[in-house]
Amino acid sequence: MSSLSLDWDFAAPRIQYNSGMSPLRWLILLVILPLAVLTQAHGYVLRAIPADRSTLERPPTRLQYWFSEALEPRFSEIHLRDQSGAIIASGGVDERNPALLTMPAPADLPDGAYIVELRPAFASDGHVIAESRVFFVGEAVGGISGSAADDRAIPLEVFWRAALNLANFLFFGAASLYALTLLPAWGNVRYRAYLPERVMRRLRGIIMGALLLAIAANMLALLQQTMVFFNTSAAQALEQNLWQVVLIGSRFGDVWVFRMVLLLFSGALLFAAAYYRELFPGLALGIWRGLPWLGALFIGLSMITSHAAGSLILPWLAIAVDWLHALAAAFWLGGLLSLTAILPTALGPLDAQTRRAALRAVLSRFSRMVAPLVLLLLVSGLYNALNFFFSPSDLVSSYGRSLLIKLLLVAPILLLGGWQRRSLPAGSLAKSLPMLRLEALLMLALLLTVAWLSATPLPEPAIPQAEVAAPQASQQVGDYSISLAILPGGPGVNTVDIVIKRAEQPVDELTLHLRLVAPERDRRSAWQLAEAVDVGLYVAVGDDIDRAGKWWSLVNITDADGGVTRAAFEWEISAAAAIQVSRPPNPLHLLSLLGIAGLLVYLVAPLARRFIVALQLTVASALIALAAIGISMAVMVGGALMIAQRQQEYERTLNPPPAVVNNVLPDADSLARGRSLYDAHCAAWQDQPQDLERLLKRLPNARDEFLYAAAQDGWRDLPACADELTASQRWHIVNFLRSKERRD
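Above: the chain sequence. Below: its structure as tokens.
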């Protein structure tokens, strides 16, 4: 339908509608993409050591609980209680891994039952869950069990989320309605904003109301979050100014401040558009056309703190799809509510025939735009559901029941919208407006279920995690009894707990250094100082174990007199012990993504056609353009593959597989034998102190095969050691030489 003036003046020049691109679009990308890296949403326990209701033969040295996302260090807690309920130890978020709740266990826990209380505060959406788990030392004890986390939504959170979503949807819907529906249908250049002032006044009221509602919802969100973080009442949160701690000490506070700044900025823009509409009409028009992009930014801020960011399946893509889902819903609901409020004001002064034509013009355009968005809503909703439902039991969880209620509300809305679209040609304002209001009321009810869904914990997925016991072993070296455990014991970040005892008593005032070695690759970590966290308990954390296979843990124990004792442990690290934090997409995900891509192509096709027409392409120029695009894509793909191949070659050049592999564990016995063999067969090295000093200085970066070659063939002026040495004896010498490495 052609553009229609509200005064039905076909002689008046009408606008040439151009969707254009606002600079605010780049602001959205610059803000949403970095924040998406920093946030995830509403996590759950991925792995627990010790496992719930496990029976241990000996007390654990440390309790560790890995979550699917980062936690708020100031508000997350872990407590250990005995079976009488008394707290005997407490811990918090690990300094190296923000997704890990950990605590050292007291030494020599007696046999019995122990309860672990977990209270993680998730950094993304601020949700706090409280649950408890049980483990036993010695034998299991009956009558003691843990408590599961409450999976119900908090009503106050549902309220402010519903209010905030309504505000965001109204802002985006009203602004998009102006740019994409009202201007093409009713726009006329005789008006400064291309629409009559009575219509613009109503639009300004809607958007200003949305901003005020968003500010109020944001304030309520801060209060509710403070109550949850501190487990306190609203009165105490206000009287003790606890909200200030949340504001400056949490990621929720960071997002809250950023959202408030954007809300105030939007209010300033709206004021400028109204104040300068007479003096600078072009500025006012530009602001109005840029408001949809700002509304998309508001919705995006909600998406990066939603469930989608915590998806185990391509979280970046989940955020993008959830954003598209919310934008489509916002245009439909926000545009419908705005249209319902605008139509009486806009069409009231017109006669019946003009009113009917104007109504048909705007509703037909709005319906044409909503139709593909409804399909986008359904397909993107299917993709979102596939990210969180992995088994039939998930459907009967609180989240699954909330989603079912949402779907039950979607059906009548779709039926009502379809019926209204079919009856559009014969419709009048008196008949259409009540149906629009009914549809808007149903969508408001749907918005409430969406808020309830956002505030409801996700069902904990059954992640295929092998029950692999954490590597741990004990040995006696001299007077020391040494126990070492690697948690969780797979590739990735691990905590190494070392317990030192002498005569069954924990020993302190020792200095421990730890080194991890992959002998088959001839690679080793730097010596790391293990921190003394309790009497006899020393802890080191690192990500040096980067793949499965054979590994050595070397421990140097230095006493107060400077004496050094070596302990060495050999492990077979299993990839199954690693913490699994991702899952691959299944065929239904791929089909959903293809459907979303097709709908996006359909939506942007008109813009693409106008762009191609503006280029005035001929057959020859079109072929050249297609060839250039194809060659560019081939060059980019080929370049990426070439860079990846060069990186692999560079890695192989820096760290080639060793020609000879050290298969002798460098424990205290190997060092003693190596010293004896060195003194007996490499004594000539002492006659070349300068070359020997140069060799020792190369130890931090030297490989074992280099030292083996030096002992076998000599190096510089250092002669070869005795020819009659076996390979095993030479490796003992290598281990002894490496023990002389300086750690300063």
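The domain at 668-738 is CATH 1.10.760 (Cytochrome Bc1 Complex; Chain D, domain 2).
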